Amino acid sequence: MAQQGSNEERRHRLRLAVYKFASCDGCQLSLLNLEDDLLALGEALDIAYFPEASSRMEDGPFDLVLVEGSISTPEDTSRILAVREQARLLITIGACATAGGIQALRNWTDVEDYKRVVYPSPAYIQSLSTSTPISEHVRVDYELWGCPIDKGQLLRLITDLLAGVKPKLPTHSVCIDCKRAGHVCVMVAKGLPCLGPVTRTGCGSLCPSMGRDCYGCFGPAEGTPGGPGAPPNTASLAQRFHGSLNLIPVDLVRRFRGINGSVGPFRNESHAWDNRREST
């Protein structure tokens, strides 16, 4: 990625770094997909470390650090501490970094079983028994949810920080987006087990707009029903899935134990139905 301006001009810009841990790179690609806006950011920021996009990799400290991916290996646990030391502001991007990601499915099983099935020489694989979000290891200043993140939210976050404004991204549910856009409710009209009522906005209600049920890729919504910051009412929605849509407990466990299944409200709900499944 080419940098605009002279070295003298770059010294007066905020320095940005992008780090990857256990992930698929999709959220870093969302940054590159900013296209023309990325060129403008390149004039406002000094993109000092971004291996996905540039061979120029400078040392810290950095003003803004974007971190993609979860902590999944012993090396990750020490590397994230070093990254935090170099960051004035650390921002996690995507479900892997904010919730442990789909690889957190290992948290409910024995990772050694996976290694034996997948790898011909599992003894060479150094992996933790769990996949955990960045916030469980270091202080995180801001979080961008999603799988992948929404590039508009990323642009808003960065421009707010450049302007000296405290970022405040929406946390309401996908359901509200559907109502505003006039989408027919797929749970009412089609009987689909949609997670939209408990999933935070960010995707533009993409799946319901195509007649499909939301599967929670932006994590739990906030602020419903108990006021600002309150967790979503997953218990009520799960009971609706079970009582009205006839989902059996094992299907409910799978529904909540997905991309963001390791984060608070979704994890707790899957545990509750897992216990019910085992008791029947």
From TrEMBL:
Q: Note the Gene3D superfamilies from the entry.
A: NADH:ubiquinone oxidoreductase-like, 20kDa subunit (3.40.50.700)
Which InterPro entries did the record assign? Hydrogenase_assoc-protein, NADH_UbQ_OxRdtase-like_20kDa, NiFe_Hase_small_N_sf
Keyword set includes Oxidoreductase: yes
Q: Name one GO molecular function term.
A: iron-sulfur cluster binding
Protein name per Swiss-Prot or TrEMBL: [NiFe]hydrogenase, delta subunit
Q: Which residues form the NADH:ubiquinone oxidoreductase-like 20kDa subunit domain?
A: 24-160
The answer, when asked if Oxidoreductase is one of the entry's keywords, is: yes
Going by the entry's taxonomy, the superkingdom of the source organism is recorded as Bacteria
Q: Which UniProt keywords apply?
A: Oxidoreductase
